[in-house]
Amino acid sequence: MLQGNILVAQGGGPTAVINQSLVGIVLEARKYASVEHVYGAMHGVTGIVNEDFLDLSQETVENLELVAQTPCSALGSTRDKPDETYCTEIFKTLKAHNIRTFFYIGGNDSSDTLRILANEARTVGYPLRCIHIPKTIDNDLTINDHTPGYPSAAKFVSNAFAGVNLDNRALKGVYVGVVMGRHAGFLTAAAALGRKFEDDGPHLIYVPERTFSMDSFIDDVQRIYNKLGRCVVAISEGIHDADGNLIVAQLAQQMETDAHGNVQLSGSGALADLLTDAIKSKTDINRVRGDTFGYLQRSFLGCVSEVDQREARDAATHGVQFANELERDGSVTIHRTSEYQIEYRLSPLEDVAGKTKVMGDQFISDCATYVTPAFLDYLRPMVGSDMMDPGRLEAPEVKKVLKNKRRLS
Amino acid sequence: MLQGNILVAQGGGPTAVINQSLVGIVLEARKYASVEHVYGAMHGVTGIVNEDFLDLSQETVENLELVAQTPCSALGSTRDKPDETYCTEIFKTLKAHNIRTFFYIGGNDSSDTLRILANEARTVGYPLRCIHIPKTIDNDLTINDHTPGYPSAAKFVSNAFAGVNLDNRALKGVYVGVVMGRHAGFLTAAAALGRKFEDDGPHLIYVPERTFSMDSFIDDVQRIYNKLGRCVVAISEGIHDADGNLIVAQLAQQMETDAHGNVQLSGSGALADLLTDAIKSKTDINRVRGDTFGYLQRSFLGCVSEVDQREARDAATHGVQFANELERDGSVTIHRTSEYQIEYRLSPLEDVAGKTKVMGDQFISDCATYVTPAFLDYLRPMVGSDMMDPGRLEAPEVKKVLKNKRRLS
User: Fold this and answer.
1) How does pLDDT run across A110-140, given as a tens digit for each residue?
2) Under an 8 A CB cutoff, do A296 and B268 touch?
3) Measured by CB atoms within 10 angstroms of the end CB, which terminus of chain B is less buried, N or C?
4) What pLDDT score does A260 carry?
5) A50, A73, A293 ranked by CB distance to B407: nearest
6) Using 50, 70 and 90 to split pLDDT, how confident is the model at B289?
7) Residues of B whose CB is below 8 A from A171
8) Quick check: A54 and B397 CB within 8 A?
9) What is the dihedral sign for C-alpha A117, A119, A124, A127?
């Protein structure tokens, strides 16, 4: 480890386990004699420019463990993406505080920020070790088998759809649930994990890896409804037409974008409403409901995978060890070596930064509206052991005795 | 207990513990020699007209206990409200199957259905014991201190807001979460339970017990935002203007209503979008997000209060005992006799049927946009013991050393 101070920051959307990674870094880094202080930057790179640091060397283990159990970036987050001027301001602060190792916990935008920063550090001749710790509920980082944050969000989505399936079975109709996922359908696909009985929903799953057609969608819903008298649909916020245009853009007049050029998809019920309105207007189905799961997917208190917690911590701990042992920058990547064994490696930043992994063809059914058993086998070991097992009444029907009885449809 | 068969059914919106009540009735009723069979009607009163019964006498205890742990009406539900003709069809079935005691698990609409049915039974001279078992996430049944289903839904809302508060603290802005509740704000008010630190959200809570003004709302949000740089709002779907017109009706062109004349409020993101659009257009705040919690509040798998589970079971068991011991119809009501002791009574159906309880003035703060400590004292014992305790970093700030540094806002 380079002699000096260590800095840790969190970027992008929060997850249920992002503080496990933070705490993993702090606890591991404090073991090294070459580390003088462990600082935390508030709100990612913004806090570096602003010289807005906490001295995490002074946190107790007890409080750190409480923070580790708490969802959402304890240091605060940012969507800022530094340009050259921004980097210059960052280096002023890093130099002033003798920071020689920087751990940035985040997704592909954050790893790209780190790549830019590492390049600028080399250009200006500032010795800085840059380590990216993976985090994203989207599960869309290349090289990685999966990413910390995804399993807990997947568990939320699975539990949510298992619940709305039961609700929809009790009061029949069509239910459309919109799940986060701009380019990758991993989180939406997790809706299938809670299915138990043959006729359980979700009955249809639409991911951004396939082109969405409104006509086919309506036909699919009508077909399931005709068969079961009900239909539960899981749909990704990132669905788009054959030209790549977002379906939600058909409605949104003012599209809000962040510094990375991403259009705001969450925080609005527009897509669910658009889809339920289409079903209402093009079919005779009279009970049609839609929900947009929104921010609950990444922040809900008390829905977490213990496997995810362990891996988020472990990836960060390995990151500090890599920084100490290997004399290079990089991104900690997660590899599945067997069912279910995980290995951590330090991959080049360039291999992860700004790239997006999407669901492979082996995970999407040929009909394009469901997932394969291979996907469920991939997902199941990550979500932990305490998944609920829903029950159904098994009693026989009572023989009808009345003849010519008026019956309700 | 009247010699013959027993029927149980579930009406209205599902809850996390409605099957605890179902199982409570089945297990208790099977103990009585006078009870020949315990039947379950599929989809409430609809299943009675259709002679659509399961013979619950043949369920194993093991499977019943699995069903009890499963959210949402295992027998299915209905929104149907019987008129005289409908009742006539019901009696045909009850008579044909020698049903002498009917337990209907539901809210104020279901208890009103039971009241109508009990009156018609007397009119036509059909001996029928009618017992209402309380259930509603809205917590709006008169006489009752609270109702089974509410504590678990309140726990969901509390955990959801505790999570989005952390999310909103990490990525600052305004967040509006819309919670179920047509006339009563109990569920929305539960958003306050997860607050721990002084500046935690929700910072504003709007319930249907108070008139909503868009101008005041915008002012309130701006004031909190100016102070904290962020603002989390919990808002009830049932908010209305001074004339009683629903705020969401300003947008909805086609208002869907059920057989009880209720307008559809859930299953659409319209209200959250209306409110976030208003904030965006009338303030300079640039990050404004809104979620509608929708059906997850009443169906999410794995978020349940063990106190709620116990009470839902116990209320039903008492219902069967009342049917056996007392020679009258009624609604099982829940009374708090001390902090925290519960007693079950059999109240007249007329005192509960079709009536709505709203939050008392002692539960709403004078400013009308928050709840009182008395409300939190009322709610806390119901939600169970496993509420999470979020942590925050406590480390001191690092002293800034750079002078005249460019800083970001």
Assistant:
1) 999 999 999 999 999 999 999 999 999 999 9
2) no
3) C
4) 63
5) A50
6) very high
7) 13-14, 76-79
8) yes
9) positive
- Cis before B32 (ω within 30): no
Number of Cα atoms under 13 Å in the Cβ half of residue B68: 24
Q: How confident is the model at residue A290 (pLDDT cuts 50, 70, 90)?
A: very high
Top residue of A157, A298, A300 to mutate, by most chain B CBs within 10 Å, is A300
- What is the reported pLDDT for B260? 63
The residue of A295, A298, A406, A407 whose CB has the most chain B CBs within 10 angstroms, and thus the best one to mutate to test that interface, is A295
What structural domains and CATH numbers belong to chain A?
Answer: 4-148+304-351 (3.40.50.450), 150-302+359-382 (3.40.50.460)
Active site residue B351: no
Q: What is the pLDDT of residue B282?
A: 96
Which residues of chain B neighbour A396 with C-beta distances below 8 Å? 54-55, 58
Pair type for strands A99-106 and A204-206? unpaired
Catalytic one of B109, B138, B140, B314: B138
Q: pLDDT grade, residue A406 (50/70/90)?
A: confident
Instruction: Point out the residue among B92, B273, B299 whose CB comes nearest to the CB of A166.
Output: B299
* Structure token pair of residue A111: 């790893």
Q: What is the ipTM of this complex?
A: 0.95
Q: How many CB atoms lie within 10 A of CB A392?
A: 15
A374: Cα within 13 Å, side-chain hemisphere: 8
Give the model's pLDDT for residue A262. 63
